[in-house]
Amino acid sequence: MGFIGMKKNCVRIILLLFIAFHLLAACSSKSSQSVNGNIPQKAEKKDELKEQLKLYKNFLQDKISSEDREAKESHYLRDYCNVLVPGKDKHGIRYALFDMTGDGIPELHILTDISYSVHTIEKNRLVEWFAGDRYCSPLNNGAILQQVESNDIGYIVLDSKGEEVFWVWFGKSGNDYRFSTGGDDVKLSKGQWEKLTEPFLSIGSDEITWKAYRNIDF
Q1: What are phi and psi of 60, to 5 degrees?
Q2: Which of 27, 73, 121, 150 could form a disulfide bond with 141, CB atoms 3.0-4.6 angstroms apart?
Q3: What is the per-residue pLDDT across 55-79, written as a single tens digit (0 to 9) for each?
């Protein structure tokens, strides 16, 4: 690689670091809260929360569907699973209530054998805020981490409407270390790769409480 190419790579790495830390700091300032003892109890939120929880429970019981705004389609809980037998345990389905948008109202998170999805309420109807594969999981700061083992890492930030505002991917294979923000992959040294991934992997998800499907207690 020539000097000009190396210089361009350095500039792109520095730019990514600036963007990443800026977004991590912004996301970390959001007051996301879990359902166990941390649901906001302000008077003006109670009625809204009660109605949302009712819709969430109806979705978990397969009584209502969630609307995919992009595809203009509606999906029931069974559509997010590979196998679903009526009347039986839902094959390892787990759910969580956790605020991803910082509005004080938790979203419904569903993790199945093949998918991870997040659902919220708009105009008294359930809508899909995010849908991905089972390797995705929420973070304490409201972002989503997609990690296949330790070699393939994606970090996604969405706005209140579920629109993607930031995405970065880190991948490694043998001694080949790369990252991308949507354009061409940039090749990194091992040290650069580890330094860039560390802020994303250190956020944690201990504030999210997952529960088995058979234990719907809200």
Answers
A1: -65, -25
A2: 27
A3: 999 999 999 999 998 888 999 999 9
